Every structure is written in structure tokens, then in C-alpha cells.
Amino acid sequence: MRRLPEPRPAGEVPSLRWGILGTGWIAHQFVSTLLANTAQRVVAVGSRTMGRSREFADQFGIDAAFGSYEDLVAADVDVVYVATGHLDHLEHARLALEAGKAVLVEKPMTPRLADTAALVELARTRGLFCMEALWTLALPRYDVVRQVLDSGLLGTIESVSAEMGEYLVDHHRAMDPAQAGGAMNDLGTYPLMFVDWVLPGLDVVAATGQRHATGSVGQFAALLTDDAARQVTVHASMVADTPTTAVIAGSDATLVLDGPFYHPGPVEVRFRDGEVLRWEEERVAHVGLFHEAVEVARCIGAGLTESPLRPLDATLSTIALMERARDLMGDPLP
Ligand SMILES: NC(=O)c1ccc[n+]([C@@H]2O[C@H](COP(=O)([O-])OP(=O)(O)OC[C@H]3O[C@@H](n4cnc5c(N)ncnc54)[C@H](OP(=O)(O)O)[C@@H]3O)[C@@H](O)[C@H]2O)c1
User: Fold this and answer.
1) Which protein residue's CA is at the shortest distance from atom 18 of ligand 1?
2) Strands, DSSP E only, in 36-127?
3) What is the CATH number of domain 152-282+307-329?
4) Residue 136 near ligand 1, beta carbon < 6 Å
5) Which positions fall inside the GFO/IDH/MocA-like oxidoreductase domain (predicted)?
6) Ligand 1 atom 28 nearest Cα
């Protein structure tokens, strides 16, 4: 009888002392779910201004509030979560690594391949844990997908598609060209990560993007393929909401991730003979961020410097695809 696997539990993990670098939207989501759902401790926060740092610390009951990122990385923490804008990840992750701290860096690790490679080299040279915060890959939902792929249940994977559309035209940062806004960095990174995870080694052969009045690319589509004629399509849009689904099509069965495919949610496998298997998970959106923190604690506790769920070579590979797609569509970074 066919059945879908259950996600594997993380097991016991150490309770790390986290330092939060930057006090924006994602930092709020991350800390609130960390405190609500794990035994991880948030012991320090750093902001460009003491006022915002103090406010964040008071909101979450954090002991130490610092008015500079330099002071934060010097504090007694086990790991620094870098939650600033895309273009600042390089400087702020470097600051933490140079202070001898492990890092979890928001996605994309940096928008440029050369900058990401520099961070990877720094972390590896210093023997420090470093991970891109692609939380999706740490979700229980994705452990189900991982086991389905490993089992060969789908047969030969022939095509993969992933699309993501969220109306973000009025967002203060996401569409600002000066902050590397546009569909690639906030959204495109997810579908490109997904297809590169399922079918690594494919290259972008075509990409086209349409510029929005803000000056950023509002939406883009990319086609990836390889010598084995496998096909991947990716689409990301900030000018319209789309179902945000992902599909892995194999010779025996097709796996469908209802939208948003990068959040907690169900997994469905449809066989060619008509049988449908479904694994259900509550759609709790960014509450699921805590799983990546547990993965960081698990890795650091086990003495690992990279997560097997999101190794640094996988980060480099996705950033290379992003860069290639941007080159093809004429979307230079500031
Ligand atoms: N994993 C996810 O689901 C997810 C979702 C959204 C965003 N993200 C990623 O998280 C990162 C941050 O996104 P966000 O939406 O949280 O951004 P945000 O709300 O704008 O927060 C960014 C923070 O960066 C700090 N910062 C440092 N220099 C800055 C400058 N020159 N201008 C503005 N802020 C500056 C600020 O913190 P201080 O004022 O405290 O210094 C600010 O609060 C992005 O790389 C994005 O891709 C991930």
C-alpha cells in the first residue's frame, strides 16, 4: 500500500543564546515564534538606534539592548541572526563572523555571487557555523517532500515548476531599486531555491522581466534546462497575487505543494493511476520560522559548521542562478 512518510522529529537540541541584528518586520516574526515555540533564548538585540533596540527588547523581554550592530556582535551570544536588508547582509554577517560568532543570515544571503562567496569563505576559514535563512527547507512539510524524493516514489523527475506572486508594490523596501528591490530578491529566491533543490545542476537558459514604474523589476519568468532535457519554470511577481504553488512532475506521480508553497502546508502526491495521497499540516505561515532556529541549534550542538538542509554550496548555487537570470533580463543591482 502506498503511503506518504511522516516528518522526522528534530530531537533534543541545545538552548542557544541568540543575538538579533536589526529590528524590522522579519526580526519581529522570528523572535516571537522562537520564544513561543522553542527553548531557544534571545538574550541581545542590536539596532542602529538605541530607541528601536530598547523598544524591541522591551516587547520581547530581552535582557541586553545595544544601539549599534558592533556592540551586539561583541556581546555574549552563541549565534547572530542577521535581519537587515539584502544589500546589508554582507557587511553585517561579516561583522558577526569577524567577531567569532555563528550566523543565520536572512535570504538571499547576499544578492551578489562574489559577495556570498566571500562570506562563505570567511565562515569556512574561521570554522564558524553559517546558514542562509531559507526557513522553508527546515519545515516538517519539506521533510515529507525530501523523503518522497529520496524514495523514488515519483519515478524520474521530468519537470519542476514554482511560482510566487505577492502584491508588494506599496511595500516600503521590497520595490525600492536603491535597496535591491524587485521580484528577484524578496520572492524569486524561493522558487529558484526550490527548483535548484529538487533538480540541482540545471542552468537558466532564458529569463525575462518587466520593469514596474518604481524602477524595479515587478515580475519575471525564467526557464532552466539541462542536457537530459529536464525542464524547470520559475515565475515571481510583486505586482499581483498568484496561487504561489510548486509542482514536481515525475514519470510515475506528480507532487503538488498548494500555495504558499514556501510556508507550512499540505503535500499532495497524484499517481498516474488516479490514486491521490495527501499529508496535512496547519497553514501557520511565518510561525514556522522557528524550525530553522531549531535546525541551527541542532547543527551547532552537533559541532557542524553548515546545515545539511541548506549547505553553503546550495546557497552559492541559487545565488548563481539569480545572478544569471538577472543578467539575461537586464536587472542590474545598485
Ligand atoms: N524569511 C522570510 O520569510 C522573510 C520575509 C521577509 C523578509 N525577509 C528578508 O529579511 C530581510 C529584512 O526584511 P524586512 O522585511 O524585515 O525589512 P525591514 O522591515 O525593512 O527591516 C530591515 C531592518 O534593517 C535595519 N537597517 C539597517 N540599515 C538600514 C537602512 N539603511 N535602512 C533601513 N533599514 C536598515 C533596520 O533595523 P534597525 O533600525 O533596528 O537598525 C530595519 O528594521 C530581507 O533581506 C528580506 O529578504 C525574509
Assistant:
1) 24
2) 41-46, 64-66, 79-82, 102-105
3) 3.30.360.10
4) no
5) 144-255
6) 84
